[in-house]
Hints:
Helix content is 46%, strand content 7%.
Amino acid sequence: MKTKYLLILACVCMLTLGFTSCEKQLDIEQHGVLDYSTFYQTDEEAEQAAIAIYEQLRGAVFNYSMILNSLGDDFWSGGGARNDNADLEQFNEFTFGTEAGYVQGLFETFYSVIYKCNVVLGHVLGGSKIQDRSLAEAHVLRAWAYFNLINLWGTPPVVDHELEASEYSRPNGTKEELWALVVSDLEAAINSGDLPEKAGVNDQNVWRTTKQFAQAMLGKAYMWQGNYSAALTQFEAVMSSGKYALYDDYENLLQYGHQRNCEMLFESNRVVDPNNIFNNSDIVPLMINWRTDKMTVPASVGLYSTGWGFLCPQKSLYEDFVAVEGKDGYRLNATMKTFEQVQEMGCSVNTAIINEGYFMWKWRILAEQMPAAGYGFVNGNSTRWMRYAEVILLAAEAYFESGNQSKADECMNMIRTRAKAPTKSGYTRDEIRREKRIELCGEFTRWMDITRWGIAYDLLKNQGEHLPIIGSNGEVTYHVFNTNPNLYGFKQNKHELLPFPGTEVRLNDQIVQNPGW
């Protein structure tokens, strides 16, 4: 027994010594763990934080482009057949609800951008060129996110700093405080002197947010508040900077290989890397490419071999082009092709698809744009968020609404000249609005314009009543899928704004849902 106790005592001593020894060995500095309270305070860390915002912004492309282009009157949801993408159909026909995944995804993305901007603004110290630039960029991109939130949701919660746990339930903001935040952010960035600028009109080395992009966004913020004079101050600053011009090749304006051309104010870059396909993935090109599995498209046409045929032009968009520049207009032919033109290219429609007889060409996806064989989601093209033509057209509208007809005409004729369309004097409000529709079609602007102008109901009240189906002979028939007019089409006092996502409302009892939802 004595021997037994001695053995136990010896074991206890050994274990004690072992634990003591282990504790000393484990008492070492941790590697690979960052102290959040002291990070972001060097140039390298500030740069990483700024890049994270751009990465988040790029992640908004799918939901942003699909929702905004589906909601307006420029496109049919498209696809191979009914229910090919029920979500897009619901947006196109105004049958979506508070649980729509696209709405949730876009709402979350904007607040993710805002969160990352708040991290920069709350932690980067400033004092060096890189750190000061990162702070200015965060102001611009937070304003961009809130500009979209205001226009899509009206009164989203104001989050202008990193939230403590006790602050997670935020009430709706007011229009006044939301617009004030957008304006103050943009003014802070512009006046800081820390935003980069292009060296000249053909400088392709600047990819970050620039002073001129911030000025254009500030002009839009004033424009949406009806302050045309203040808006013009910003648009004129961009136009007089001499750093941007209308690109002389409209047909290839948005094409791969033409990134960062003289017209682009801001775009999200993509770098082709087959070894990192998830960071380069973008399903949008496949979504909007021609419906290639139900068509014959010769290799000589140059289109990428995979496409799902969503977002195809409506006849009314085609007719607006014709009204301005005729059936053989340069800009029209650079934007879309008719069924007859598609046939002349050697293409054919083999099986009926959702289409009204028009095929987008402006955003065609070329085989060379998807250069990584076997990785269909690798996309080398940039997303263009804003181009100089939008600034000119906004200025034309602001001049007109301010009573300066001659300056409005001057801006309109700049756009018309590049489009090789007839120029004139005495443009009307409707002509200015139509010009913006055709010049910027598919570039995310139409929905916010028609809701801002108060004409969405007239244009969209019957959308969803029918859907066009084109056969192999080019004949278009209109199929009725929604039979109750109370359940489709734009409804006043409801569809002017998107609903706050159902999940957000359930988690945050401080949010008041938008009217009609």
